[in-house]
């Protein structure tokens, strides 16, 4: 069964001309790691390091493509899509970063003649969240919703 | 038989013992504003689904599939010679992509988002009650957020497998055994005065 409903099973797609089997040997990875670790004293080690970095980049691109596909299919399935999980992995589509920020335009600034007091403000997100819930989405004066990007993250159970 | 529900078990697990044991002790747990509001919204969603033949608009409004819709179906399952599990599910259907498998859907009015519910044991408990389920969706509406807030409505999918069933049974047996021991040690009958 596909991880995301709506995704066509692979068997319904056109068969690739040639099937490719990728075998990754943990032993080879460890050998590359050992070889690359000697870079301080061994110029030949950079070949092993380069191979490791190439592998890392390939895997990162593949995982990124998987994330994009899951988000796209999840949102196509339901606009409120937030997460999907199986027995071992959970994919969570959520916002990252601070939820609120200070609206500087609404904050008065006091500048004594010779000293500029430095005041820092931090937002008590829990209290703001309570206020927001109580006032149906309205926020305390001086606080607005921060622009945040939403990312898909995987968590292995 | 000792009949438990997910809500009793979950209440016991989070330490809300009065609420967990109320069906046996007879303690009166008054419904609060949130519970009343939840019941009203559930009624509203059920009427909307029946009338429009679609999921509630706030949860995406997808058309119903396969005409196999079941709404608010209650199940009771005997887990062993002393324990019964009961529960009710908002909606069951059989979308094409599951190839005959069933999908369970629960609508929630909740400050918690769908991910929190997906992380709970409720999906696994539903797998015990409805073994035919292959997939489960939690659709949550947080009525305390503004209508245009992207977090107001959230949806989480969990795939239900044999492992979900095993985990669910283990959790139910563990919590129910604790509750049973407490009731017996305090001389309280395991039979509910009224079945819920």
Which tags fit this structure?
heterodimer; A: 157 residues; alpha+beta; 3-stranded antiparallel beta sheet; two-stranded antiparallel ribbon; 3 helices; 34% helix; 16% strand; B: 196 residues; alpha/beta; Lambda Exonuclease, Chain A; 6-stranded mixed beta sheet; 6 strands; globular
Provide a descriptive summary of the structure in words.
The complex is a heterodimer of chains A (157) and B (196). Chain A has helices at residues 26-36, 45-77, 125-134; strands at 81-85, 89-95, 100-102, 143-145, 150-156. Helix content of chain A is 34%, strand content 16%. Chain A has a 3-stranded antiparallel β-sheet with strand order 1-2-5, covered by helices on one side. Chain A has a two-stranded antiparallel ribbon with strand order 3-4. Chain A starts with 25 loop residues before the first helix and ends with a strand. With 157 residues, chain A is an alpha+beta fold. Chain B is of the alpha/beta class. Chain B has one domain: Lambda Exonuclease, Chain A (Alpha-Beta Complex). In chain B, 38% of the residues lie in helices and 24% in strands. Chain B is built from 6 helices and 6 strands, in the order βαααβββααββα. In chain B, strands 1, 2, 3, 4, 5 and 6 form a 6-stranded mixed β-sheet that branches. The mean pLDDT of chain B is 90.
Which secondary structure elements does this structure contain, and how are they paired or packed?
The complex is a heterodimer of chains A (157) and B (196).
Chain A: H1 26-36, H2 45-77, E1 81-85, E2 89-95, E3 100-102, H3 125-134, E4 143-145, E5 150-156
Antiparallel strand pairs in A: 1-2, 2-5, 3-4
Chain B: E1 2-5, H1 6-13, H2 17-25, H3 33-52, E2 70-78, E3 83-93, E4 102-109, H4 114-119, H5 122-129, E5 133-141, E6 153-159, H6 162-185
Parallel strand pairs in B: 1-3, 4-5
Antiparallel strand pairs in B: 2-3, 3-4, 5-6
């Amino acid at each position: 069964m596909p991880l995301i409903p709506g995704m066509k099973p692979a068997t319904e797609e056109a068969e690739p001309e040639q099937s490719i089997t990728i075998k990754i040997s943990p032993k080879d990875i460890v050998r590359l790691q050992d070889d690359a670790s000697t870079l301080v004293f061994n110029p030949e080690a950079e070949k092993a390091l380069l191979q490791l970095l190439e592998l890392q980049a390939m895997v990162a691109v593949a995982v990124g493509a998987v994330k994009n596909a899951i988000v796209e299919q999840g949102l196509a399935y339901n606009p409120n899509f937030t997460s999907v999980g199986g027995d071992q992995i959970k994919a969570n589509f959520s916002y990252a970063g601070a939820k609120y920020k200070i609206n500087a335009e609404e904050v008065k600034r006091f500048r004594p003649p010779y000293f500029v007091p430095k005041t820092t403000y931090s937002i008590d997100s829990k209290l703001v969240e309570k206020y927001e819930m109580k006032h149906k989405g309205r926020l305390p004066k001086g606080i607005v919703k921060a622009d945040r990007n939403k990312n898909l993250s995987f968590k292995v159970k | 038989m000792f009949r438990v529900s997910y809500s009793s078990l979950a209440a016991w697990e989070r330490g809300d013992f009065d609420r967990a044991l109320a069906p046996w002790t007879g303690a009166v747990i008054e419904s609060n504003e949130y519970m009343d509001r939840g019941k009203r919204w559930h009624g509203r969603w059920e009427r909307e689904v029946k009338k429009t033949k679609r999921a509630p608009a706030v949860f995406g409004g997808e058309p119903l599939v396969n005409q196999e819709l079941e709404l608010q179906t209650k199940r009771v399952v005997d887990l062993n010679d002393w324990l019964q599990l009961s529960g009710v599910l908002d909606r069951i259907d059989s979308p094409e992509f599951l190839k005959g498998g069933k999908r369970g859907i629960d609508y929630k009015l909740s400050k918690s988002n769908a991910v929190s519910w997906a992380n709970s044991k409720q999906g696994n408990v539903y797998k015990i009650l409805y073994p035919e389920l292959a997939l489960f969706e939690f659709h949550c509406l947080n009525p305390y957020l503004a209508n245009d807030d992207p977090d107001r409505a959230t949806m989480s999918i969990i795939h239900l497998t044999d492992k979900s069933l095993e985990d669910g049974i283990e959790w139910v047996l563990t919590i129910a055994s604790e509750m049973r021991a407490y009731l017996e040690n305090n001389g309280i009958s395991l039979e509910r005065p009224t079945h819920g």
